[in-house]
Specification:
By secondary structure, the protein is an alpha+beta fold. It has one domain. Helix content is about 20%, strand content about 30%. It is built from two helices and ten strands; from the N terminus they run H-E-E-E-E-E-E-E-E-E-E-H. About 25% of the residues are buried.
Length: about 180
Protein backbone atom coordinates (compact mmCIF):
# COMPACT_ATOMS: atom_id res chain seq x y z
CA UNK A 1 0.00 0.00 0.00
CA UNK A 2 2.86 2.38 0.84
CA UNK A 3 4.48 1.79 -2.54
CA UNK A 4 1.20 2.51 -4.32
CA UNK A 5 0.74 5.82 -2.44
CA UNK A 6 4.33 6.88 -3.11
CA UNK A 7 3.94 6.04 -6.82
CA UNK A 8 0.69 8.02 -7.09
CA UNK A 9 2.25 11.01 -5.29
CA UNK A 10 5.28 10.93 -7.59
CA UNK A 11 3.09 10.81 -10.69
CA UNK A 12 0.95 13.73 -9.48
CA UNK A 13 4.01 15.85 -8.68
CA UNK A 14 5.62 15.14 -12.06
CA UNK A 15 2.36 15.82 -13.95
CA UNK A 16 1.77 19.11 -12.12
CA UNK A 17 5.34 20.26 -12.84
CA UNK A 18 5.02 19.12 -16.45
CA UNK A 19 1.90 21.22 -17.03
CA UNK A 20 3.38 24.53 -15.83
CA UNK A 21 3.76 27.33 -18.36
CA UNK A 22 7.02 28.94 -19.47
CA UNK A 23 8.14 32.31 -20.82
CA UNK A 24 11.42 33.26 -22.49
CA UNK A 25 13.04 36.07 -20.46
CA UNK A 26 15.35 38.58 -22.09
CA UNK A 27 15.31 42.24 -23.05
CA UNK A 28 15.54 41.54 -26.76
CA UNK A 29 12.08 41.39 -28.27
CA UNK A 30 12.38 38.30 -30.45
CA UNK A 31 8.97 38.91 -32.04
CA UNK A 32 9.76 42.36 -33.46
CA UNK A 33 13.55 42.16 -33.34
CA UNK A 34 13.71 45.33 -31.26
CA UNK A 35 16.04 46.03 -28.36
CA UNK A 36 14.65 47.15 -25.02
CA UNK A 37 17.17 49.18 -23.01
CA UNK A 38 17.45 48.85 -19.26
CA UNK A 39 19.66 51.73 -18.18
CA UNK A 40 20.94 53.85 -15.34
CA UNK A 41 19.47 57.37 -15.00
CA UNK A 42 22.55 58.61 -16.93
CA UNK A 43 21.57 56.46 -19.93
CA UNK A 44 24.49 54.08 -19.38
CA UNK A 45 23.68 50.37 -19.50
CA UNK A 46 23.56 48.45 -16.22
CA UNK A 47 25.97 45.82 -17.60
CA UNK A 48 28.90 48.04 -16.64
CA UNK A 49 27.97 47.66 -12.96
CA UNK A 50 27.26 43.93 -13.02
CA UNK A 51 23.48 44.32 -13.07
CA UNK A 52 21.03 41.45 -12.72
CA UNK A 53 17.33 40.91 -13.36
CA UNK A 54 14.58 38.54 -12.27
CA UNK A 55 11.04 37.86 -13.47
CA UNK A 56 8.12 38.35 -11.06
CA UNK A 57 4.60 36.96 -11.42
CA UNK A 58 1.88 39.52 -10.73
CA UNK A 59 -0.74 37.64 -8.70
CA UNK A 60 -2.80 40.82 -8.26
CA UNK A 61 -1.94 44.52 -8.64
CA UNK A 62 0.90 45.28 -6.22
CA UNK A 63 1.40 41.59 -5.31
CA UNK A 64 4.51 40.20 -7.01
CA UNK A 65 6.18 36.82 -6.53
CA UNK A 66 9.71 36.08 -7.80
CA UNK A 67 9.85 33.24 -10.32
CA UNK A 68 12.85 31.67 -11.98
CA UNK A 69 16.53 32.39 -11.51
CA UNK A 70 18.34 35.71 -11.20
CA UNK A 71 19.75 36.48 -14.67
CA UNK A 72 22.99 38.43 -15.20
CA UNK A 73 23.51 41.15 -17.78
CA UNK A 74 26.22 40.38 -20.31
CA UNK A 75 29.51 42.00 -19.34
CA UNK A 76 31.69 41.19 -22.35
CA UNK A 77 33.03 44.03 -24.48
CA UNK A 78 31.07 42.61 -27.42
CA UNK A 79 27.83 43.28 -25.53
CA UNK A 80 27.69 47.04 -26.05
CA UNK A 81 23.95 47.00 -25.46
CA UNK A 82 22.74 45.97 -21.98
CA UNK A 83 21.42 42.51 -22.86
CA UNK A 84 20.48 39.88 -20.34
CA UNK A 85 22.27 36.55 -20.69
CA UNK A 86 19.99 34.20 -22.51
CA UNK A 87 17.14 34.43 -23.32
CA UNK A 88 16.29 32.07 -20.48
CA UNK A 89 13.10 29.99 -20.33
CA UNK A 90 11.48 30.57 -16.93
CA UNK A 91 8.78 28.28 -15.50
CA UNK A 92 5.75 30.10 -14.09
CA UNK A 93 4.64 27.87 -11.20
CA UNK A 94 0.94 27.24 -10.72
CA UNK A 95 -0.10 28.41 -14.20
CA UNK A 96 -0.62 25.86 -16.96
CA UNK A 97 0.86 26.09 -20.43
CA UNK A 98 -1.55 27.88 -22.77
CA UNK A 99 -2.91 30.07 -19.97
CA UNK A 100 -2.37 33.83 -19.63
CA UNK A 101 -0.10 35.43 -17.03
CA UNK A 102 1.02 38.94 -16.09
CA UNK A 103 4.69 39.40 -15.23
CA UNK A 104 7.09 42.22 -14.30
CA UNK A 105 10.84 42.25 -15.02
CA UNK A 106 12.86 43.78 -12.18
CA UNK A 107 16.51 44.82 -12.61
CA UNK A 108 18.94 45.63 -9.82
CA UNK A 109 22.57 46.32 -8.98
CA UNK A 110 24.32 45.50 -5.70
CA UNK A 111 22.55 42.64 -4.00
CA UNK A 112 21.35 39.10 -4.52
CA UNK A 113 17.73 40.13 -5.24
CA UNK A 114 15.61 43.16 -6.06
CA UNK A 115 14.57 43.45 -2.42
CA UNK A 116 18.16 43.42 -1.12
CA UNK A 117 19.64 45.69 -3.82
CA UNK A 118 21.91 48.32 -2.29
CA UNK A 119 22.80 50.51 -5.30
CA UNK A 120 20.13 50.63 -8.03
CA UNK A 121 16.80 49.00 -8.83
CA UNK A 122 13.88 49.43 -11.20
CA UNK A 123 11.06 47.48 -12.75
CA UNK A 124 9.22 47.20 -16.04
CA UNK A 125 5.60 47.85 -16.73
CA UNK A 126 3.31 44.82 -16.16
CA UNK A 127 3.46 42.56 -19.22
CA UNK A 128 0.45 40.38 -19.99
CA UNK A 129 1.34 37.20 -21.82
CA UNK A 130 -1.70 35.78 -23.61
CA UNK A 131 -0.46 32.19 -23.75
CA UNK A 132 2.41 30.67 -21.76
CA UNK A 133 4.57 28.10 -23.49
CA UNK A 134 5.10 24.49 -22.48
CA UNK A 135 3.10 21.30 -22.82
CA UNK A 136 -0.59 21.85 -22.05
CA UNK A 137 -2.49 19.17 -20.16
CA UNK A 138 -4.55 16.70 -22.14
CA UNK A 139 -1.95 15.72 -24.73
CA UNK A 140 -2.12 18.94 -26.79
CA UNK A 141 1.01 19.78 -28.81
CA UNK A 142 3.72 21.82 -27.04
CA UNK A 143 3.53 25.61 -27.25
CA UNK A 144 6.80 27.52 -27.81
CA UNK A 145 7.80 29.84 -24.94
CA UNK A 146 6.75 33.40 -25.81
CA UNK A 147 9.10 36.31 -25.17
CA UNK A 148 8.39 39.51 -23.24
CA UNK A 149 6.92 41.26 -26.30
CA UNK A 150 5.22 43.96 -24.18
CA UNK A 151 8.46 44.95 -22.43
CA UNK A 152 9.23 48.69 -22.57
CA UNK A 153 12.49 50.46 -21.76
CA UNK A 154 13.01 51.42 -18.13
CA UNK A 155 15.72 52.80 -15.84
CA UNK A 156 17.07 51.59 -12.55
CA UNK A 157 17.24 54.34 -9.93
CA UNK A 158 19.48 54.77 -6.88
CA UNK A 159 18.29 53.00 -3.73
CA UNK A 160 18.07 55.53 -0.88
CA UNK A 161 20.30 54.84 2.09
CA UNK A 162 18.52 53.75 5.27
CA UNK A 163 19.78 56.88 7.04
CA UNK A 164 18.13 59.07 4.39
CA UNK A 165 14.82 57.27 4.86
CA UNK A 166 15.11 57.57 8.67
CA UNK A 167 15.82 61.29 8.36
CA UNK A 168 12.76 61.78 6.14
CA UNK A 169 10.53 59.91 8.63
CA UNK A 170 11.94 61.96 11.51
CA UNK A 171 11.27 65.23 9.63
CA UNK A 172 7.72 64.19 8.73
CA UNK A 173 7.09 63.22 12.37
CA UNK A 174 8.39 66.58 13.59
CA UNK A 175 6.08 68.43 11.18
CA UNK A 176 3.12 66.33 12.28
CA UNK A 177 3.81 66.93 16.01
CA UNK A 178 4.36 70.65 15.47
CA UNK A 179 1.11 70.94 13.55
CA UNK A 180 -0.87 69.31 16.39
CA UNK A 181 0.29 71.90 18.93
Amino acid sequence: MKKLLVTIAAVLVSVSAFAQGTVSVGNRNLTTGGNVPITLPTGEGVRSLGGQAQLYLQNSPGNLTAVGPVINFRTTSAAAFPFLEGPTDVVIPGIQAGSPATVVLRAFVGGSSFETATQFRGESNPITIAQLGGTPPGGAPPIPSPDLSGLQAFSVVPVPEPSTIALAVLGASALFIRRRK
